[in-house]
Write a structure and sequence with these properties.
A nine-stranded mixed β-sheet has the order 16-24-23-17-18-22-19-21-20, sandwiched between helices. Strands 5-4-1-2-3-15 form a six-stranded mixed β-sheet. By secondary structure, the chain is α/β, with parallel strands linked by helices. Helix 7 packs antiparallel against helix 11. It is globular.
């Protein structure tokens, strides 16, 4: 009989979005990203506070952890590395894995955390990614695609699972990377920061693919599986250090050749903050289209290898929700599962699951995407001095009042229940607004989020009504799919309809989020609209974690209400008489 460790701690660190996850007795009881605690976006060093949270959540001490699981195998694909290292010896630093500014080693960190005697197990990067999406579906056999920039010398992998195992079937290795292609073109478009790729995805809806033929010269399909980067355009092999850290925050070296791309495209690299022109819209559209073509090429090979309906997606590229929303139109897959934390934060969950070696479920108090701490409300000085509380006798009254205020154009920040694990706010750390208001998008971008005006907003939609509003849609609980809004419905929800008639959505069910479902249902009864604008509760910083984080963000932006657990606040300067 196989022995499954009872307490497994998964950790991810090194290239961005460090995190920790904890499995106890076959249940995933906690997971969180370090950036939410230390407020440094995409923090990449060891997840000290996230580990402490996970252990505290389970009431365990470090000595009770049996296994530490990580998603790193430095000698992975050794026989494919060797020829490349012989011809490019300066890449040895990359293959070994540089410290990237870390002040302590992994073993030193383990000792500091009281975990130095704990057994450490290592799993391949993309296997850990795949494992993070494995149990989102109950299907016994699933097809897997994991793809990102790079991990353990591999940028993309396909696999399949049976009830007993998960096996990688094929891989694309360094230097060829669809993630690098998208990141390089993101840089070229004037978005230089780690994690800026989603801006290009949003910008793409404004343009036309007039640079499509040029994109085919930059990255080409390889039959029957894979792709090849144009190494002249993306001279990745010349740099021994593609990533580096500054105060724990990741940065990416310039991944493209300015001379080559300028000659090919006929436009120069856009400088950060330079006004966006039509050529930039068109380039973004062309990049997105080429990404989708290459991703679909990988899916076609996966279909031929694993003829099933269920597709599990992971890796940073799986956050390309514009592509995800079209999968059922471009493949046989019908049950599409996207890991809530598809990026490297999800490695902590996947590695822990791999170490457990048997099916894992979320604990009764959580779900696959709601695994972080509650806001820990306390009567801090800033709350007592600057906020006015509004008291309600029942939770239903609270939801009805919020729905009324939203229908009148108010903006509400929510910090309630367990924090989301992954980049999407799913109603527990969200800013909510009325999707019927055409001007709401500009209000939120300018006065609350303080970000680029072209950025669209997503919608949380009652699952029961989703098909009435969106074409070819499927269950999307982690807000990782963009669908076309039905023509007859577009004029009713202009606040969430993007320029191309699309909208990224979160499917909301009463089973998984009863309060949030009830709130949206109360809004539907008043307005006939079964959805709300939902954007993450933050302002150019990580999503808020604690009550104090929420209060600070609330007071520095133009939101009207703040919901902390079941307590509703407004600013005293805008206090109103209220009886409930």
């Amino acid at each position: 009989m196989l022995h499954h460790p009872n307490v497994i701690l998964g950790v991810s660190f090194g290239h961005g979005d460090s995190s920790a996850a904890l499995i106890v007795g076959g249940q995933l009881v906690a997971a969180a990203e370090e950036e939410r605690f230390n407020r440094i976006k995409h923090y990449a060093l060891f997840p000290t506070q996230a580990v402490k949270y996970c252990l505290n959540q389970a009431g365990l001490s470090p000595s009770e952890v049996e296994v530490i699981a990580i998603g790193k195998k430095p000698w992975n694909q050794f026989f494919k590395k060797v020829p490349l290292l012989i011809s490019h010896p300066h890449l040895l630093k990359l293959s070994r894995g540089q410290k990237n500014g870390a002040t302590q080693t992994f073993s030193q960190w383990l000792s500091e955390m009281g975990l130095s005697r704990t057994h450490v197990r290592s799993f391949e990067h993309h296997l850990a990614h795949m494992m993070s999406s494995r149990f989102l579906s109950e299907a016994e056999t699933q097809a897997f695609l994991s793809f990102d920039g790079l991990g353990d010398f591999v940028s993309a992998a396909i696999g399949m699972s049976t009830p007993q195992s998960l096996k990688i079937l094929d891989r694309v290795v360094f230097p060829h990377s669809l993630g690098f292609f998208y990141s390089a073109m993101t840089q070229y478009l004037g978005f230089p920061y780690f994690g800026d790729e989603f801006k290009v995805m949003g910008l793409s809806s404004l343009g036309k693919p007039r640079f499509h033929s040029e994109m085919k010269n930059l990255i080409r399909e390889v039959e029957p599986f894979g792709f090849r980067l144009n190494i002249e355009a993306f001279p990745i092999l010349k740099s021994p250090e593609l990533f580096y850290l500054v105060n724990g925050q990741p940065h990416v070296q310039t991944l493209y050749s300015p001379q080559y791309l300028t000659a090919v495209l006929g436009i120069s690299p856009r400088k950060n903050k330079e006004p966006l022109a039509e050529a930039h819209w068109d380039l973004a559209k062309s990049v997105q289209l080429r990404f989708e073509e290459i991703a679909n090429h990988l899916l076609r090979h996966l279909e031929s290898k694993v003829p099933v309906d269920t597709l599990a997606l992971s890796g940073g590229c799986a956050h390309n929700s514009v592509w995800v929303g079209k999968i059922i139109q471009n493949s046989r897959f019908r049950d599409i599962q996207v890991a809530p934390a598809s990026h490297d934060a999800g490695i902590a969950v996947g590695a822990a699951m791999a170490a457990y070696g048997a099916p894992v479920t979320p604990s009764a108090q959580s779900s696959w995407s709601l695994l972080g701490p509650q806001p820990q409300y306390s009567k801090s000085q800033i709350i007592s001095q600057e906020l006015q509380e509004h008291v309600f006798s029942k939770e239903t009254k609270l939801a009805e009042f919020i729905a009324d205020e939203l229908s009148q154009g108010k903006i509400i920040g929510v910090a309630r229940g367990r924090l989301e694990f992954g980049p999407r706010a799913l109603g527990n750390r969200s800013i909510l607004a009325d999707p019927r208001d055409f001007e709401m998008k500009d209000r939120l971008n300018a006065r609350v989020k303080h970000r680029e005006s072209f950025r669209p907003f997503a919608a949380s939609v009652l699952m029961e009504y989703q098909e009435q509003w969106f074409e070819n849609s499927f269950y999307a609980p982690t807000m990782e799919a963009v669908f076309q809004v039905r023509s007859s419905m577009k004029s009713k929800i202009p606040g969430v309809v993007h320029v191309d008639g699309s909208c990224r959505i979160q499917s909301v069910t009463h089973k998984h989020q009863p309060f949030y479902w009830n709130l949206i249902e109360a809004f539907r009864k008043r307005t006939g609209i079964p959805m709300l604008i939902n954007t993450s509760f933050n302002d150019s910083e990580p999503i808020v974690l604690s009550a104090d984080d929420a209060v600070k963000c609330f007071l520095s932006t133009e939101m009207d209400y703040l919901l902390l657990e079941n307590r509703l606040f407004s600013k005293k300067s805008a206090a109103i008489a209220l009886t409930a």
